[in-house]
Amino acid sequence: MTYPVALTIAGSDSGGGAGIQADLKTFQERGVFGVSALTAVTAQNTLGVQRVGMVEPALLKAQLDSIGADFQPTAVKTGMLGDSFTIEQVVQAIDAYSWTTVIVDPVMVAKGGHTLLEQEAIESLTQLLLPKASIVTPNVPEMELMTGLKIEGDSSARKSMEALLKSGVTAVILKGGHRTGPLATDLYLDQSGREFSLSTPRLATHQTHGTGCTFSAALTAELAKDHSVEAACTVAKRFIQAALQYPLSLGAGHGPTHHAAYRVYGQGEGEKQDAQAPILHYGHVR
Ligand SMILES: Nc1ncnc2c1ncn2[C@@H]1O[C@H](COP(=O)(O)OP(=O)(O)O)[C@@H](O)[C@H]1O
Ligand SMILES: Cc1ncc(COP(=O)(O)OP(=O)(O)O)c(N)n1
Question: pTM score, two decimals?
């Protein structure tokens, strides 16, 4: 059997908690071989983003072609894409190499407020890239920007998911990190009408840098191993919960999550692990 390969197309985070670094650490943790194409380089730490530089288009294309010519990734994840031109190049590569399992994390703004996708590129993202996606994983602000709909409660959350599906997206996971309440609930809905939610206790922590990247990288890794969507979502939710629950306490700001925590603590026995296990609820997403 060949070892599963997952590709991440994303920006570098010098602080190691998000971006390419989070993706590759997560792929390794989940037993898939990670390959990468860098779209941008950020000077970033737990306090924020200090500088961003885009990778020259020809160099991005060369990376995508190098991967496409020699590897067969069974799942591809996109993260920070930065601008419209980069999005167009990524779409061309997806077509050229027939990458079919594509997870789009529509990264737009870093936690500290720094823009990671030009405003004018949101349309390219929704028009060109989202139709190629198997699953799109927005947080609440990203969902609002993509649909133009405000999310204030459960019914508006569902309406925005339906609106995204109407625009041709295959499946969406609306992440719950930016919402309030005792549970961090992620909602799944797809074109076939399948829906479920995944909830874990909301942890009171500011060590949340890279939660979105890490969650969608874990999802990508499980799909690269050909696991079912439900199984992949459940592992991804457990993975991010453990990564948040056992922080490393690095840096003076929003510290990174602990990418090894699920392997080290999350699969063992014991009260803590049981208490944090996600509640998978099937049926109507309220
Ligand atoms: N405080 C928290 N406690 C538990 N889970 C959380 C918390 N914050 C975020 N999550 C989970 O982390 C994942 C990423 O969500 P989110 O933080 O919304 O993404 P992003 O980093 O893109 O803003 C989701 O599974 C979400 O439910
Ligand atoms: C290079 C890079 N890519 C993506 C992000 C955003 O990651 P995310 O997981 O959404 O985490 P926060 O920025 O919300 O902590 C990033 N910061 N840098």
Answer: 0.95
